[in-house]
Automatic annotation (TrEMBL):
Residues 138-229 form the ATP-dependent DNA ligase family profile domain. This is DNA ligase (ATP). It is an enzyme of class 6 (ligase). One of its GO terms (molecular function) is ligase activity. Its EC number is 6.5.1.1. Belongs to the ATP-dependent DNA ligase family. Residues 1-38 are annotated as: Disordered. Keywords: Ligase. Gene3D superfamilies: 3.30.1490.70, DNA ligase/mRNA capping enzyme (3.30.470.30), Nucleic acid-binding proteins (2.40.50.140). It catalyses: ATP + (deoxyribonucleotide)n-3'-hydroxyl + 5'-phospho-(deoxyribonucleotide)m = (deoxyribonucleotide)n+m + AMP + diphosphate. It comes from Shinella curvata.
Amino acid sequence: MKRTRQSAIPLYDASRETLQSRPVRKRDPEQPSLPFDPMPDRVEPCLALLRPTPPEGPDWLYELKWDGYRLAIHIEPKGVRIITRGGHDWTHRFPAIADAARKLGVGTAILDGEAVVLNKEGHSHFGALQRSLGGRGGKRASTEAVFFAFDLLYIDGHDLTKTELAVRRHLLEDFLDGTVGAVQLSDEAHGGGTELLANACKMGLEGIIAKHRDRPYRPGRTGDWIKIKCIQSESFMIVGYEQSDAARGGIGSLLLAARQGDGWVSVGSVGTGFKAADAEYLRKTLDKLKTKKPVVPLKGKNYVFAQPTLIAEIEFRGWTDDGNLRHASYKGLREIQDNAAVFDMAAISKSQ
């Protein structure tokens, strides 16, 4: 049965009009030729800083926050490369995206964006993306994933990383105008940040991203990009588990830790969100990582401690006064190649 590729749902205002950006201007065909810049082998990604509320004003543009894998597509004279955030070549894992990129009709380009799998409501779904790749450590290629491009870093010999975002977005919209399928444009949402966040949360989406229009593309969490989440979701290190004869797979809960300086600090545990197959895989893998010395100072009769190797994506509703996660739920394991950043407790004070 042939699958019909879905599109992401747009944000709407009260009148159900699509909240979407409006073209600023057409590209000037008489723009003088610029000197050619060498194409970089890799660009260190710009990352979004977590904030509790969106910034407001004309200096900021807004997009949906995608729930998938951050990727860069390198379109080169000899072919296409798909590079993960950590710098690994995953072209073979996303053949449909690579094929669509080859057909974009450009000599050279670097697109920054996110690979997602959309559910029937048009929402990006991290678990569905993982399953399409065969789970953590799986070797399957995803034919369902769609790449949503939100930045253009290089095109036809011109390095755009020192150019302000407004110009990069204009060129990206020109470049991907009307494209559908495995490579699509991540639309800019039109409206105020508070309004857009409320709409995103009402629609069950993860949140929004705010980006400063006048800033160049700078690696790391500089504050040029801000992420605001409806439901918080971060990566934490699994440092053990609590045994349970009553629970499926023998795991009652996973013990979690975050970074604190050069070490680790406990942030509590998670006992929901994983299915029997998840629990069985986790127990088998964590048993191979057993250690008598816990990474964080925890004591429990049924605790099994593990070396800090597995990184879990966890949804949660906030923090308790003693620094534990509230209402945590397991979403899945992050891939090593995805270079998932384990949550740093310093981010809590920065976001307040």
